[in-house]
């Protein structure tokens, strides 16, 4: 196994569902010891999120790989005391509760700093920690709507559409990972911790680049599967399915004109520059679709001709095509990993791997934990004997309700 970039970093992960757990799993990939603190009995809500296999959530396995599970009742003062005993050896806390929740347990940033002054403490919410929205409940779809992302997604003249993936959750999780890594870099250089406020909504506003048009008193409109300032740059129709063409640059456009036997378009002032083509795409798009359906038997033949001509193109993959693509698997982007020991009908499953490849400190992947799987290990580290651990397990049963 290669070296671990985050070896020696201990993280207490109080997050649930998708966004926060994404950040925790990424930190675990690079060698951090991530201890997921869950409620006894049921665990965090993500353990019941479909699809379910043998009564266990495959989604939980996806978002919580490489972690340890410590099942504690934070409503019991002794449960909070266990967390406080872990704080001196903890470098990072991740939490995604509503503002004020961690303070109820004395585990907010100010409370933790009394025990661990150099803690890196990251909170992830929909609306952040200040402003008039902070007390409102929030979810991924709310962040998509309020960021303006949803208003830009969908067919021209149609209704707004949410993303097919939980874009707010995932961007929030990536942002939490990046901000924690930045704070750890600062901590390693200075010994100084800090508080991090990550918002799903802010994360999506950050990637909503069309907002820049508001400076010119303009607003972007939904364009469906085509781009407002580039053409051809979108989804086009073949006899047996859809493909993408992206011939925005001059070289690719000239090659496409030659392939279509329309060399005159290369010098036509209506089509010559990418902006010109975008303004005239209502004329061009039907012509591209007509050419593809009338001249090729289907997507494979069309893509072969376009590829040979040097026109960027591809199929529009469905989930199964992504999941089974041999190149993705050969590259290590999709790989077989263990699920959970109590999932006998699916002991392994194919899942995404790390966010990148690294030559010296590559990501390493391990299965998600059973609920409370590391309780004995962690409690013994803190000095609890077997009698006391047995007593706690009786008070906080880990069996399914």
Record the SSE blueprint:
Blueprint (H helix, E strand, L loop, with lengths): L9 E4 L5 H11 L3 E6 L13 E2 L2 E2 H6 L4 E4 L5 H10 L5 E4 L5 H4 L4 H5 L6 E6 L14 H7 L20 H24 L3 E6 H8 L25 E6 L2 E6 L3 H10 L14 H6 L1 H15 L3 H10 L4 E3 L3 H6 L1 H5 L3 E5 L9 E5 L22 H7 L4 H10 L6
Parallel strand pairs: 1-2, 1-6, 2-5, 6-7, 7-8
Antiparallel strand pairs: 3-4, 9-10, 10-11, 12-13
Helix pairs in contact: 1-7, 6-8, 7-8
Structure, explained:
- 36% of the residues lie in helices and 15% in strands.
- The chain has 16 helices and 13 strands.
- It has 401 residues and is α/β, with parallel strands linked by helices.
- It has 2 domains: 10-208 and 324-395, 3-Layer(aba) Sandwich (Rossmann fold), CATH 3.40.50.10540; 233-316, formyl-coa transferase, domain 3, CATH 3.30.1540.
- Helix 1 (19-29) crosses helix 7 (167-190), helix 6 packs across helix 8 (200-207) and helix 7 crosses helix 8 (200-207).
- The strands form 4 sheets. A 6-stranded parallel β-sheet has the order 5-2-1-6-7-8. A 3-stranded antiparallel β-sheet has the order 9-10-11, covered by helices on one side.
- The protein is elongated.
Average pLDDT figure? 94
CATH architecture designation of the largest domain:
3-Layer(aba) Sandwich
CATH topology of the largest domain: Rossmann fold
**Which percent range describes the beta-strand content?**
5-15%
Tally of individual helices = 16
Taking strands numbered 1, 2, ... along the chain, how are they ordered across the largest sheet?
5-2-1-6-7-8
Question: Largest beta sheet, briefly?
Answer: 6 strands, parallel
Q: How many structural domains in the coordinates?
A: 2
Give the overall shape: elongated
Flag low-confidence runs: none
Terminal CA distance reads 39 Å
Structural class: alpha/beta
Q: Helical proportion?
A: 25-40%
């Amino acid at each position: 196994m290669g070296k671990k970039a985050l070896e020696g970093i201990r993280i207490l992960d109080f997050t649930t569902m998708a966004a926060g757990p994404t950040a925790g799993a990424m930190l675990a990939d690079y060698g951090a010891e991530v201890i997921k603190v869950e409620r006894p009995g049921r665990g965090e809500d993500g353990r019941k999120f479909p699809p379910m296999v043998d009564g266990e959530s495959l989604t939980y396995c996806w978002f919580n790989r490489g972690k340890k599970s410590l099942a504690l009742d934070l409503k019991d003062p002794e449960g909070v005391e266990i967390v406080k005993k872990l704080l001196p050896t903890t470098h990072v806390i991740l939490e995604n509760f509503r503002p004020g929740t961690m303070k109820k347990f004395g585990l907010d940033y100010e409370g933790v700093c009394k025990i661990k002054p150099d803690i890196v403490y990251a909170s992830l919410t929909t609306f952040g920690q200040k402003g008039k929205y902070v007390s409102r409940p929030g979810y991924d779809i709310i962040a998509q709507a309020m960021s303006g992302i949803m208003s830009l997604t969908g067919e021209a003249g149609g209704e707004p559409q949410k993303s097919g993936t939980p874009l707010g959750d995932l961007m929030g999780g990536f942002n939490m990972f990046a901000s924690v890594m930045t704070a750890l870099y600062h901590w390693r250089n200075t010994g100084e911790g800090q508080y991090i406020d990550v918002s799903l909504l802010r994360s999506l506003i950050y990637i909503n680049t069309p907002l820049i048009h508001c400076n010119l008193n303009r607003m972007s409109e939904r364009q469906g599967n085509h781009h407002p300032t580039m053409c051809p740059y979108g989804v086009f129709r073949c006899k047996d399915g859809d493909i993408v063409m992206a011939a925005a640059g001059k070289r690719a456009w000239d090659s496409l004109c030659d392939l279509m036997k329309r060399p005159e378009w290369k010098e036509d002032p209506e089509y010559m520059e990418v902006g010109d083509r975008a303004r005239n795409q209502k004329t061009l798009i039907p012509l591209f679709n007509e050419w593809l359906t009338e001249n090729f038997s289907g997507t494979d033949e069309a893509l072969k001709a376009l590829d040979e001509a040097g026109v960027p193109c591809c199929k529009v993959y469905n989930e199964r095509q992504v999941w089974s693509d041999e190149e993705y698997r050969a590259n290590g982007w999709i790989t077989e990993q263990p699920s959970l020991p109590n999932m006998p009908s699916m002991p392994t499953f194919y899942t995404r791997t790390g966010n990148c490849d690294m030559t010296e400190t590559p990501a390493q992947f391990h299965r998600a934990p059973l609920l409370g799987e590391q309780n004995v290990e962690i409690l013994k580290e803190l000095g609890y004997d077997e009698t006391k651990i047995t007593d706690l397990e009786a008070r906080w049963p880990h069996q399914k309700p």
